[in-house]
């Protein structure tokens, strides 16, 4: 049993690395032509990235699987087709964070995401911490993207560069 458990862990790491590589290259294609910058918040909210990092590390320390959950949450935001919802299919816009209303079914409650997306409270906590420092400056989409990157670093030690300035739904 010890070796099969190691094989599962190894397979999970390989799958995660491949997903991150695919995701990173896809983001470059999706964002082509946009005016994105890795230092976008340096002057408007200088502590934004470190604030998010601390919130994500705290969440992962409390629950180790939160790292994978945050990466998956970002994946669902960017790549699960939103055209079956009442939102346009934009991707990477934080639409997965929206709550349902009486006239709107959110992506959180969509059949593709029910029971498979987690980490909303960790993102909400990161957003509250950032808002306390820089109200109305950092987009939810950026917080979600940075959280996924920081989760990758915390759990796997894999860093990938991000260019901020995504769009919120």
TrEMBL record:
<dbReference type="InterPro" id="IPR000823">
    <property type="entry name" value="Peroxidase_pln"/>
</dbReference>
<keyword id="KW-0106">Calcium</keyword>
<keyword id="KW-0349">Heme</keyword>
<keyword id="KW-0560">Oxidoreductase</keyword>
<feature type="disulfide bond">
    <location>
        <begin position="45"/>
        <end position="134"/>
    </location>
</feature>
<dbReference type="InterPro" id="IPR002016">
    <property type="entry name" value="Haem_peroxidase"/>
</dbReference>
<feature type="binding site">
    <location>
        <position position="91"/>
    </location>
    <ligand>
        <name>Ca(2+)</name>
    </ligand>
</feature>
<comment type="similarity">
    <text>Belongs to the peroxidase family.</text>
</comment>
<feature type="disulfide bond">
    <location>
        <begin position="78"/>
        <end position="92"/>
    </location>
</feature>
<protein>
    <recommendedName>
        <fullName>Plant heme peroxidase family profile domain-containing protein</fullName>
    </recommendedName>
</protein>
<dbReference type="GO" id="GO:0140825">
    <property type="term" value="F:lactoperoxidase activity"/>
</dbReference>
<feature type="binding site">
    <location>
        <position position="77"/>
    </location>
    <ligand>
        <name>Ca(2+)</name>
    </ligand>
</feature>
<feature type="binding site">
    <location>
        <position position="80"/>
    </location>
    <ligand>
        <name>Ca(2+)</name>
    </ligand>
</feature>
<feature type="active site" description="Proton acceptor">
    <location>
        <position position="76"/>
    </location>
</feature>
<keyword id="KW-1015">Disulfide bond</keyword>
<feature type="binding site">
    <location>
        <position position="95"/>
    </location>
    <ligand>
        <name>Ca(2+)</name>
    </ligand>
</feature>
<dbReference type="GO" id="GO:0009505">
    <property type="term" value="C:plant-type cell wall"/>
</dbReference>
<feature type="binding site">
    <location>
        <position position="93"/>
    </location>
    <ligand>
        <name>Ca(2+)</name>
    </ligand>
</feature>
<dbReference type="GO" id="GO:0006979">
    <property type="term" value="P:response to oxidative stress"/>
</dbReference>
<keyword id="KW-0408">Iron</keyword>
<dbReference type="GO" id="GO:0020037">
    <property type="term" value="F:heme binding"/>
</dbReference>
<feature type="domain" description="Plant heme peroxidase family profile">
    <location>
        <begin position="35"/>
        <end position="169"/>
    </location>
</feature>
<feature type="binding site">
    <location>
        <position position="107"/>
    </location>
    <ligand>
        <name>Ca(2+)</name>
    </ligand>
</feature>
<dbReference type="InterPro" id="IPR010255">
    <property type="entry name" value="Haem_peroxidase_sf"/>
</dbReference>
<dbReference type="GO" id="GO:0046872">
    <property type="term" value="F:metal ion binding"/>
</dbReference>
<keyword id="KW-0479">Metal-binding</keyword>
<dbReference type="Pfam" id="PF00141">
    <property type="entry name" value="peroxidase"/>
</dbReference>
<dbReference type="GO" id="GO:0004601">
    <property type="term" value="F:peroxidase activity"/>
</dbReference>
<keyword id="KW-0575">Peroxidase</keyword>
